[in-house]
Amino acid sequence: METDTLIVGGGLAGLSLASLLQAAGRDYQLVEARTRLGGRIKTELFENGYFDMGPAWFWPGQPRIAALVSELGLSRFDQHAAGDLMFEDPTGEVQRGRGYASMQGSYRLVGGLQAMVNAVAGQIPENRLATGTEVTRLERKQDGIAATFADGRDIDAKKVVLALPPRIAGKTISFGGDLSESTLHAMSQIPTWMAGQAKALAVYDTAFWRDDGLSGDAMSRRGPMVEIHDASPANGGPYALFGFIGLPAHARQDQKMLKSPIISQLGRLFGPAATKPRALYLKDWAHDRFSATELDQAPVYAHPQYGLPPALSGLWDNRLHFGSTEIANGFGGYLEGALEAAELTAQTLLNDTR
What we know:
The chain is an alpha/beta fold. It is built from 9 helices and 18 strands. A hairpin with a 4-residue loop joins strand 11 and strand 12. It starts with a strand and ends with a helix. The mean pLDDT is about 95.
């Protein structure tokens, strides 16, 4: 099998790049190791509610995602922030009205971010998409790159775009032995955005916290969740609260053990009704091998300085490219950065006439 461009990774960056190549009439194939599209975007469906377990927000001042939402006919809504905030000190004492709504002014998407993934994927012919297809080896050839899949199949491509985090590429793919040590080192030094995070989400029939004059926002010094927000849909139920789990990755491997303290904490902050969720979802990205490596187990305390380092440009006679959100200069790490990376990579590919 042959293709002009092989895109490795079916998250927002890879899908957006594929849609741009499709619009330009170019030949390409996109492969995704997971059995689903979306990458770090993962939306759970409970009855009529869509709940994002990966990224959930985007913001004003991000032009690409605003344009894409409009182009795809999707709808955004404001993150709920009305009402008092809750604060929990290290002893578990709860104070009402302390702090600020840190996500006020951010946007969420009706139908969850999976609605965007589905809409972008809908622009790509089915025969150009393959899920459950993991690339395990890339080897430079005289006129291109040979890619080998985990099941032993292979494909020849003139160019390859790694639309997955550089650390994941360096961990899961072998490169035929002729990438320099400086290149491999540079790949390992780019933190994978969100990789160390774990989220818990509790679903309820009513937004009882709103009835009590609470916003659903809470900060905690006790945990296990350190930051909590209202995760309810734009209109109607079911409703939800979600939180970021503050325990280090090695201390949260047993998800069953986490559920009881999570529910107890929700009860302390929001009252007895919070201890009886209809459903409780947990997603630990640090233990997802397609999202995190051992280097990502350590917490990231500030937003990394992203962008494409010189050691990752011009590889294999400009045939091997990186195209995940981590290589975006302006909005690296964000959804906007995934679109930025796709845009920049598409420009490079479309200007290459080989």
